[in-house]
Amino acid sequence: MRSITWRLTVWYAAILVSILAICGLAAFWSMRYVLFSGAAQEAASAVTAVQKMAASQEGNGRGNYNHIDLDDPELINATGNNMLLVQITSSGGRVLNSSWALKNAALAPGYAGPPVLSRFQGEEVYLAGGRLSGGALVQVARPLTREEDFLKDLARVFMLLVLAGLLLALAGGWVITRAALRPVHSLTRTARQISTSDLRRRISLHGGRDELYVLGETFNQMLDRLERGFRSQQEFVAAASHDLRTPLTVIKSYADLLNRWGKNEPAVVDESVQAITRAAGLMERLVNDLLLLAHMDAGPPLKPAPLDLAELAAETVQEARAVAKDVSVEMNPPSPVPVEADEHYLRRAIWVLVDNAIKYNRPGGKVELVAGEEGGQAFLRVSDTGRGIGQGDLAHIFERFYRADQARGQGKGFGLGLALAKSIVEAHGGKITVQSEPGKGSSFTIMLPQQKNIVG
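The line above is the sequence of histidine kinase; the predicted structure tokens follow.
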């Protein structure tokens, strides 16, 4: 019963059998009512017929009613039943006349009224009575043996139908449920066959677009995302390994140089120490960026607080001027732009954009920052006069370890900065966009909600 197929089959069978049982009971009691009502009507009609016979022959029998033939075919035809038990009694209860079917038995004396259910010699009957002239009573009993036999047969038929319906419901429910759940079984088989070395398998979708079709489609979409994520992870590991290999090679080479020649050569020692220090610094930057990306993926522990975006950008400009040699970094006179954000993370995102604008600018170029409000949102735009970004690279520049060929040749970064900036901005409920043309520079824009919708 742990199987959904069996549970659905049992529920289907139980509901169908319940419906059959309810319909059968309703039909049984409706038929019983009709049959018993007819029998009661026959008993009442027999009383009326005897009263008419007695009235038409009054005076011939001198009050003993023996002259009335209670087995007369006219009486039987009048009531339409040959199962009537009829007797006539005096006011004192003495039987004056009775039908042949009563033989030596007698009905319960004294009752004169509409048909009621009673018992006679162990059988259920409808008993009806009426008064005759002279105080005599006529009583008619209509046995219900025929109706009861019919109802017993009807009950057996209904029971057989319910049993047959149960068997058919179990068999049909099993077949229908198996067919309906075939996409689920296909999904299960596909899930079992998927491994990290084969993420290309998908569920074949057929038929109408019902709930199970949507389930299979959703599962395929999930597999697409998993495949993209797994490939991205592989590319991430490969790129990180590639970028770590260079400083590690430098450290190993200079360590060998020190081991062979550096003991008595101060110049070699100085050169080696400086090279190892630079390589260690590169590794430290890469590892810190990777750790920060890991924190962003896990959900950064943001501590949003009210701050001025323009003031934060102005501070970044002052820091950038200290490292920019032949590139000018300017900002228009800032007006307050209130936002609610984590200052540490947001400062890092702004620095990434400013640092890139400086590194990839032309000699004598310019970097300009503009902060303001637009459409109910705060924005910070960082523009440069560098060589720009090609259309083929624009769609990928926010991917991790992605670097345009020109930038990669200069070895100015690891391709993690823009990915970090994008993750930080999106964690604050904002977005980052870029506009660029080769030879005309680039413009990056950060859009942030104003003091609301901060993810933390």
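Note on the example: The longest helix spans residues 4-56. The domain at 211-295 is CATH 1.10.287.130 (Helix Hairpins).
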